[in-house]
Amino acid sequence: MDERLAKTIAAIRESGADWGLFTTPDGVAYAxxxxxxxxxxxxxxxxxxxxxxxxxxxxxxxxxxNLEAGTGSWADLVVTYTGFSFKEPTDIFANYVxxxxxxxxxxxxxxxxxxxxxALPASILPLLEGNAIVPVEPAFRRQRAIKTRTEIGxxxxxxxxxxxGQKAFLSTTRAGxxxxxxxxxxxxxxxxxxxxxxxxxxxxxxGRGRTSQFMGWPGKRILEKxxxxxxxxxxxxxxxxxxSCASAMIGQPSSGFKKLxxxxxxxxxxxxxxxxxxxxxxxxxxxxxxxxxxxxxxxxHHSGHSIGTSVHxxxxxxxxxxxTLREDMVIMVEPTAxxxxxxxxxxxxxxxxxxxxxxxxxxxxxRPGIPAR
Length: 373
Known about the structure:
Elements: H1 3-14, E1 19-22, H2 25-32, E2 51-55, E3 60-65, E4 77-81, H3 92-107, E5 112-115, E6 132-135, H4 137-145, H5 149-172, H6 179-194, E7 200-206, H7 207-213, E8 228-237, E9 240-241, E10 244-250, H8 255-274, H9 281-294, E11 304-306, E12 313-317, E13 330-333, E14 336-339, E15 343-346, E16 349-353, E17 358-360, E18 369-370
Parallel strand pairs: 1-5, 3-4, 5-6, 10-18
Antiparallel strand pairs: 1-2, 2-3, 7-8, 8-9, 8-10, 11-12, 11-13, 13-16, 14-15, 16-17
C-alpha cells in the first residue's frame, strides 16, 4: 500500500469515519493517484468531479468519465460513465449520478462518511442519505503536510522544472519583448524538461505599477530597459506542483531596486538559516516581516505556503498560524519588498524541512539584473 493511501486512511480514521469520499482534484490525486486535468477547468464532458472513495479497511474506488478510462490510479474498482458522446444524445449529469450510486453500492459504502465539504457536489448528497457525514479536511490536511519519500522526489522534480523556467526568464528576457514573449520562452523551457504540456499558474508582470501590485498574468506590454519584473512560476508535474519566484530589472539595476532586492534576499536567506523542526510558523512569518520592515519597506504578501498535489496547502506561512514546522514538510518561502516609486520584488525558493534545518530544492540563482542586449 502506498504511504499516501495509508495516510488517507489514517485521516479517515482520525475523522471518526468508516469511509472517505474525495472530490477535489488534489484530494483524489493524493488519495488514489489519479491526476485530473485542471488547466482548462471543469470538463464540458463531465457530470461532476472525479469521485474517489477509500474505506478504512483499504477498499478503493474511483468514478471518472469515459474520456478518462484507462488513466492511472491505484483504485481497485474503477467505474466510468458516458460523458463524451457524439453518435447519440446522452444526459451527462444523470449518467454521473447513476454510476456514482453504482460505485457506492458495489463498495457497500455506509455508516459514517468523511467528505471534502467545500467540494462535495449537491448531486451526491441524496446518495448519502441515512449516513452520518463528517468533514475530512482537518485530518486530511494534517496527514498531507508531512511528505512521504515518494512525494519529496516528485516535488524535487517539480521544483527543478520551475527552475528551468526561471533560468529561461533570466537568460532570454530583453527590452523590446512583450510579457507574452517572455512567458512563451519560460513555458517552453519547463515543458521541454517535462516532455509534455503542463498546467501552469503564477505571475509574470513588468513595470513599476504592475510589480507594485505583485500579481497578474502576462499581457502585450512591451518591456523597456529599466523595467522591474516579477516572474512567479508554478508548473504541475506528474500531479505535484513546483513553485518559484524571481525578480529582476532589465539592464543595470537602479540603486533603489538593488535595495529592494537586497531586502527580499536577506529575508529569504534568514528563512534558510533559521528553518528547522519545532520553529513556530507565526514566529517565522514575524521574523521575515521584521526583516523587510528593518529595510524600510512594506510587506503586502504572505511569507509562503506548503505545497504538494495542491499549489497552496496547509500550513500557510502567516502570522496567525500556530502550527510548528516538522521534518519533511515542504514549504515555499517568498518574502516580498514593495516601494510604489520603484516597484516590487518577490524572491521564492522551495524548501524541505530536514531533521536539522532545511534543504533548498530549487536550483536557480536569484540575481537583480538582466543584461541589456
